[in-house]
Design brief:
Immunoglobulin-like; 703 residues; seven-stranded parallel beta sheet; globular; 24% strand; homodimer; 4 domains
């Protein structure tokens, strides 16, 4: 049996059989952040002994077995929309854009899991592996299991009831097709949170988006040209809606679906257009996908560096072929130099659940030697890396979107998104993403009701990307939620009231910018996911294992956004004391609180007792590009502390130390203290008038 | 390139690479019906030349390519519930009990398809192959495709719209995991119908159930014991409902889910019970599954002949291990000798779409050397063969149910069923089953409304198995459709009227028995599926390609059962003339007819003009066991013909020629003639008073 080889601080590798040449680690696109890993608590011994694993090869591929017990909570496997706790489940880690059931299929499946016992396991494969988390008992366990079942004397009277009566097995099994071997990476804790941090830092550390990326995004109607976009910006300005990122499809997918990467005549002077946007403090994000139309200037050259099969009727560039990568990056360099601040990389996954098999098949062949299955597992990653490299070479940070991802993706500043739209799945997906070094954008598209619209937006503003994506509607959904009437230009009744609620949510996002930016800095430096499940911080508290509709943001916030129809909300607050973000009301942790009499304006958001929270001051001038005034909000009665990260917000200078961490402390006796000033020009710290949220203390200035 | 080897009349085999040892043909459980194949139209040349196929192996397995063109209609792939025409689709042929989308997953996927061009292709694999039917274009086709697309100048405004704009590729691709080779069997036509017949006869010929199997079935509440069953039979007799097959779970899955194959104390004397049923002209079908509880008398002996992993917490017998087969068959021999007439073989598939992975995993290992994936592809088949062999050895025909099947299953007298329940999918599944030598039972369980109940029953009586399956309700659904109220014993209002409609449908089934039995005899002798899609008989008529809610029964019937909510029904009648089964009204073929003013009693059922239809006479004495009086119904004005098959209805004597085919002819001038008498004692032919259905001719005696 293999013995563990230390690879990085607290990370060991087991090698079983002969691993394939193409794997997430073998083709990794970012280096491990070894320097930053050194800051983690040292762990001297691998949490697994060689004998803990078993491995065998068979005609079908290979089978790896890791220990598991029924008292263990297993989480992860990438963007899982339909389940949170994975113990007892089978997951087929296949890249798919329409996971219609809890199968494991995902835009971004990852063969990585973490356990409440405080370790993580990455199975380094670019195959559609199936994982069985304690699903099956071995034949030897027959008698023992029969004794457990003796109590069951009545027949089940529904299929569900019959199928529910099962026991946990004692293994996590990875069933890996095609491969004759695999490397397994074990990440030590000692805590679950530390294991995730090691995985993120081993991936290269979490991304740090430019500050503008954390502001509010809007994607207008796909038919809009320059004039329509201009009118829209005017309208947002008039309504005081603080949007700062514009997402566009520049007409390059218009003629049909493959992409030319050439702006259409709807935008006659793209560079001037981008410049105009920037002068109004907007950034531009372009919607694209990788499958190239013959009208693209690089089509002819890239053809021989593409798959042998078309995808979406276009050429499928092989990002692992240096020439394809160079050509594709070249087109993006041109765009970035022309003022584009980010991209939305669409269609880089696959689908087995709709009638049209639009992406390349698993049996496609690529010049680099990868087959279609391996390429699906790595395509989103390589696509991100190709685009990301362009920005890095330009010395410009970006924040973008991507529809597929995989293992070791944390350093890429891309958030995942989905064409699916269930609000509860969007929340669960965002929360689960944190286990595997991903971000997820629960964007707002349309809504079934005003309540649905407002609730979805309240979730979006408390997520990695605050985006409204109205590509199929000419007006914003707060103008008219009905799609047909929206297209007909009919404003809905009461739209004015809805705009107020929309503004309130978007402003909350703006106010939270210093907190969010600091949370991402922690992600970058220490590997702590800025949006994460409650169980990450408190795995010892079993009540957090099922919390898949509420989550932590940064060090001190807990969000439990409402969904349409929720008139009463149960929120579980972990051990310790918490305060309502808006009212300062104190709530005891370690128990479930029932929120009732909820209004459309309510957003359940809680602050850990003893926190100094740096919030951007609500300002009329949020449409401007100047620094944000940061006021400090104190949640506590005796003492409180917090921190504020800052840098230039745009470049990679922070990686060379050009940044600041300002520690903020407050005591009832001594008042507020800050250990220095934020660097750069993003934040103006106003220490003079902290807002005290101390329950019976003076009321806050907030609604 | 491989050259075709003739295997059977009109059947050729291509061998590519080194095929696996375990495959449907290699492990076939019935011999080809070579004698009967000789009766087919001879075809001298293989419809495919070696160069038509391409084949390659790769690390993932192997890839086989067959020609396809966009004008070709491809059908088949086993029990497909969500689509009919497969051209343009990708299908993943994985064994699954809950296909939630049109993915190819199925209780009974089969790597066999037929083309409207008049040939069939069986890819002989026991792997979860993916089939791409003209889904993709090769990279070379880029420019050509771009020219086709030039007309598309507007962006798509919905995901569906974007994904719909695709072209057909020119290949059918089988992507087969793990294997280094595969045999391909090509079935000549010249017509599509002939290709299906060759496949069915190559499988061993279609099954011929005992006559009782075609009568009406009822499965009562799972908690019922002998007393409750007795009361139920009394009630059916009182209401005049002609049920003759009782389906039971004899309490052997009661303690928990694995099966002991031992009757529980609810049935203290099983043999006496079975005898009592038979004396009342009922037959007994027992619900079971293969995964064994340790309480089973054979558990200890069979353990070392079972999988290394439990399924449903029970032992998984390896049916390809002769000792497991012997032990398992032994238990069934005991039951059959004790009066059991058939079985319902449950849970022999798998599921990836529910949260509990209850069946054995793909990586399970079996003593016979098969792995779990291969075993899933073959388990339903081997289970059927094991049980079927017992009946054959006892010289007793049976008609049973099974939840999973595969290739070459036609000779096994089992109908498939599903826990899914969409009425349109049940119809489509029944119709699609015919392409691959399967039967499907669209059973009635519960209903959302009285209309839903009646419509579902009207479908069931026009299907391979006419079954009401109320295992989770103590009373029949016509007593109370609401599940809760049914369990509470509350009779619904108007139940009396509903019983009349139920009786009418069940009586229709009884009247059709001679037609159905004859249709199955054709299935056995000539391979013509008794229930089949319109396209099978008229592939040249493109309008039939989309007919997935109406179908042919035997030689002369066309059924288009109604579903709840259908107040108006469009029915397409193929070329030729047709008559309404009930009224004799003449309808021109080659066009769509709109039926309106539909009442709950209406059942759209049509007879080919010029048919003499042998129908069992409606009789009060249908609860008895005597022969059925057959009256002849003439649909036509000048001349008509028909036939009636008969044998002893119970044994295998018919295979030795102990049976009769009675040809029936009628002319307006000469009246009715029959060329002999039906053998056996099943039918009493009454030639004296034929019923003439000739439109303006004397009205029929039917409602």
């Amino acid at each position: 049996m293999s013995s563990p080889e230390p690879i990085a601080p607290g990370v060991w590798r087991y090698r079983f059989g002969t691993p394939e040449e193409a794997s997430p680690v073998a083709l990794r696109q970012a280096d491990p952040a070894l320097d930053r890993m050194a800051g983690l608590l040292p762990v001297d011994e691998c949490p697994f002994a060689g004998a803990d694993f078993s491995f065998r090869t068979e005609r079908r591929g290979c089978v790896l077995t890791a220990p598991f017990d029924a008292e263990e909570g297993v989480f992860g496997f990438g963007l899982q929309l339909q389940s949170h706790l994975q113990s007892g489940k089978k997951k087929h880690l296949r890249v798919n854009s329409d996971p219609v059931a809890d199968t494991g299929d995902s835009h971004a499946p990852v063969p990585f899991y973490v356990s409440t016992r405080g370790y993580g396991v990455l199975v380094d494969t670019a195959r559609y592996a199936s994982v069985y988390v304690g699903t099956h008992l071995s034949a030897e366990a027959l008698k023992e299991r029969a004794e457990q079942r003796l109590g069951q004397q009545q027949p089940g009277l529904s299929t569900e009831e019959i199928y529910r009566r099962h026991a946990f097995g004692r293994e996590v099994v990875f069933d890996i097709p095609a491969a004759a071997g695999v490397d397994v990476y074990v990440f030590a804790g000692p805590t679950m949170r530390d294991a995730i941090r090691r995985y993120v830092l081993f991936s290269g550390g979490g991304c740090l988006p430019p500050l503008w990326g954390l502001k509010n995004w809007y994607r207008p109607f796909a038919k809009d040209g320059e004039a329509e976009v201009g009118a829209l910006l005017e309208e947002f300005a008039k309504d005081g809606l603080p949007f700062h990122v514009l997402g566009l499809e520049p007409g390059w997918q218009t003629r049909s679906y493959p992409n030319s990467l050439v702006w259409s005549e709807r935008f006659p002077d793209p560079e001037a257009f981008a410049g105009k946007l920037r002068s109004r403090h907007w950034r531009l994000n372009l919607w694209e996908h990788a499958f190239l139309d013959p009208a693209s200037p690089i089509a002819e050259e890239i053809a021989s560096h593409s798959a042998d099969t078309l995808g979406m009727d276009g050429l499928v560039p092989d990002f692992f072929d240096p020439e394809a990568e160079r050509l594709f990056a070249g087109e993006h360099r041109r765009l970035v130099k022309g003022g584009v601040a980010g991209f939305k990389l669409d269609e880089c996954d696959n689908s087995d659940f709709i009638s049209y098999s639009w992406s390349f098949p698993e049996h496609a062949r690529f010049p680099s030697g990868l087959d279609g299955e391996q390429m699906h597992c790595l395509y989103g990653l390589a696509y991100q890396a190709t685009v990301d490299r362009v920005f890095r070479e330009e010395g410009q940070r970006h924040y973008s979107l991507v529809r597929s991802s995989g293992a070791l993706a944390a350093p890429f500043p891309f958030a995942l998104y989905s064409d699916l739209y269930a609000h509860d799945e969007f929340l669960r997906g965002m929360i689960n993403s944190g286990f595997s070094g991903h971000l997820f954008a629960p964007e707002v598209r349309h809504a079934a009701s005003v309540e649905d619209l407002v609730r979805r937006l309240q979730t979006a503003v408390l997520s990695p990307v605050s985006q409204v994506n109205c590509w199929y509607m000419p007006h914003a959904p707060w103008f008219q939620i009905d799609r047909q009437l929206n297209q007909a230009g009919v404003k809905m009744e009461g739209a004015g009231e809805v705009v107020k609620l929309v503004k309130q949510a978007l402003e909350l996002r703006m106010r939270l910018l210093p907190v969010l930016y600091t949370a991402f800095a922690h992600y970058h430096r220490e590997g702590v996911p800025p949006f994460r499940a409650l169980v990450v911080d408190t795995p010892e508290d079993r009540r957090t294992w099922s919390c898949d509709q509420q989550y932590l943001i940064g060090q001190s916030l807990l969000a439990a956004p409402l969904k349409a129809g929720e008139r009463v909300k149960e929120v579980y607050l972990p051990q310790g004391a918490w305060r309502d973000f808006f009212t300062g009301k104190r709530l005891e942790g370690g128990r479930t609180h029932t929120l009732s009499d909820l209004s459309l304006a309510d957003i359940p958001l809680f602050v850990r007792e003893g926190t100094v929270l740096p919030l951007a001051e609500s300002a009329e001038g949020w449409s401007g590009g100047g620094p944000l005034t940061v006021r400090l909000h104190v949640y506590g009665e005796e003492k409180a502390e917090g921190e504020l990260y800052a840098d230039d917000g745009e470049t990679f200078a922070f990686e060379r130390g050009d940044c600041s961490w300002t520690r903020l402390t407050w005591t009832a006796a001594g008042g507020l203290k800050a250990d220095g000033c934020p660097s750069g020009e993003m934040f103006l710290l106003d220490l003079a008038n902290p807002v005290l949220h101390a329950g019976a203390a003076p009321a806050s200035d907030l609604p």
